[in-house]
Specification:
about 40% strand; alpha+beta; about 180 residues
């Protein structure tokens, strides 16, 4: 019986060659080419999609970002891989890059924004379990349309129970009023 390793193929010279690994990387729910705006102390999620198990080099300024993403090689599995970073409280303002392999990801550290987007992606996925692609599209579109905006995941900020209860009450009232 003949078995073919899907990661390797015999080329015209009878040597093994590797199939290309299609990969993509993005920050939070933004499109892979979007600039993501964050403030000091904000958390961000680095997403890496790979068609194969492999290793990739991640590079960022450790005086600006810290967290669970290694500044160096990271072994990744087939599918979606994530790790978290946080913007340091002493980070300089301005445009910065996080490199994932040869792909640069743009992050702008700002001290103010015109609009604040707060989402709870976990709750959206729970509420619309059969529409995960739709939820992802809505989240990506929110980042795409949000020039000068800072986006936060609801679960990433601690406003205290008083504010969370107020926010929850506002959402319940909005649903009752049809807004």
């Amino acid at each position: 019986m003949f078995y073919l390793n899907v990661a390797e193929v015999v080329d015209g010279t009878a040597k093994c060659s590797e199939l290309p690994n299609h990969m993509d990387a993005w920050v939070d729910w933004a499109d892979s080419n979007a600039v993501v705006r964050k403030q000091k102390g904000d958390k961000l999620t680095l997403n890496i999609y790979s068609e194969q198990d492999t290793s990739i080099r991640i590079s960022y300024d450790t005086s600006v970002f810290n967290g669970k993403c290694p500044n160096g090689n990271l072994g990744i599995n087939e599918g979606l891989n994530t790790c978290g970073l946080e913007v340091d409280d002493e980070a300089p303002l301005g445009a910065l890059k996080i490199s994932v392999g040869s792909k640069p990801l743009d992050v702008e550290i700002t001290d103010s924004s015109d609009l604040l987007i707060i989402t709870d992606s976990e709750k959206l996925f729970e509420r619309y379990p059969a529409e995960s692609n739709g939820v992802k599209a809505v989240l990506r579109q929110a980042y795409s349309n949000a020039e000068g905006t800072v986006g936060f995941g609801w679960v990433d900020i601690d406003l205290g129970s008083e504010y969370k209860n107020t926010y929850t009450d506002m959402l319940k009232k909005s649903k009752r009023d049809g807004n």
